[in-house]
Design goal:
By secondary structure, the protein is of the alpha+beta class. The protein folds into two domains: 3-182, no CATH class; 190-233, no CATH class. Helices cover 30% and strands 15% of the residues. The chain contains seven helices and eight strands. It has helices at 3-17, 32-43, 57-61, 102-120, 137-143, 191-195, 213-220; strands at 22-27, 72-79, 126-129, 148-149, 155-156, 164-171, 201-202, 206-207. A four-stranded antiparallel beta sheet has the order 1-2-6-3, sandwiched between helices. A two-stranded antiparallel ribbon has the order 4-5. A two-stranded antiparallel ribbon has the order 7-8. α1 (3-17) runs antiparallel to α4. The longest helix is centred in the middle third of the chain and has 19 residues, at 102-120.
Length: 233
């Protein structure tokens, strides 16, 4: 077994041991196609009042600006589907928000994983991110072979669905790279589009962030969610 194969094995086994459901690895490269799509999305104003989406454009498409000398992107998925579902409530809480703040949970796991890499492989420069940097996580998860990007914009794993947090560990270490997930299993299904109460899911896997319920409840906080007769917002 080569050192690259052994290092990859060490990392993936450690990721599973930390409770991550899946771990895939992709080679660092500039995301030119994503850059064009992001630019078009921003030009159409789909970020709404989320001005931070306009910042750090160069960082979003080039990970070497986040981690100098970056060679590999380690992508992990953590399942958040709860054991018990809400019962008899007049309101709904998103399943991902049932428990402890996932940022804290995953950040601790990523720090442990990076420490494990340094302890068992050697001095490695790396940084872990979970919603804390301008990383195009879903693109990298797809490139790392973890699933395809569905019509609802979420990464969907063929074996386990889409109830996952996505986290990223960027390192300056060469590793074995997984094949990108190239097949799209959404087919002609439109369940997510039909179910979206604010028509935020558009054709070609485009999400209008300014119409999404999470935009109203998280970003705007005090704004009312438009009903079905007010969907011109």
């Amino acid at each position: 077994m080569s050192s690259i194969e052994n290092h990859t094995k060490i990392i993936k086994e450690a990721a599973v041991g930390l409770g991550f459901a899946y771990c895939g690895i992709a080679k660092v490269q500039k995301l030119d196609d994503d850059a064009r799509r992001l630019e078009q999305w921003l030009n159409k104003g789909m970020q709404g009042n989320m001005q931070y989406m306009e910042n750090n454009f160069d960082l979003r498409i080039d990970l070497s600006k986040l981690v100098p000398g970056a060679k590999s992107v380690i992508m992990v998925l953590l399942n958040y589907y709860p054991e018990k579902i809400q019962q008899n409530l007049t309101y709904k809480i998103s399943k991902y928000a049932y428990g402890q703040d996932y940022h804290e949970v995953i950040r601790e796991k990523l720090n442990f994983l990076l420490g494990h890499i340094r302890e068992n492989i050697g001095e490695v420069n790396g940084r872990g991110f979970v919603d804390s940097a301008p990383v195009l996580e879903r693109t990298w998860a797809q490139k790392a072979g973890l699933g395809w990007i569905g019509k609802n914009g979420n990464i969907i794993n063929k074996q386990s669905g889409s109830f996952f947090f996505i986290a990223t560990l960027i390192v300056d270490l060469e590793l074995e790279y997984d094949n990108p997930f190239v097949k799209d299993y959404c087919g002609t299904c439109t369940k997510c589009i039909d179910a979206c109460p604010t028509d935020a899911i558009l054709p070609d896997k485009v999400i209008d962030g300014s119409k999404c319920i999470s935009y109203f409840t998280i970003e705007l906080k005090d704004a009312l969610i438009p009903d079905k007769n007010e969907r011109t917002i």
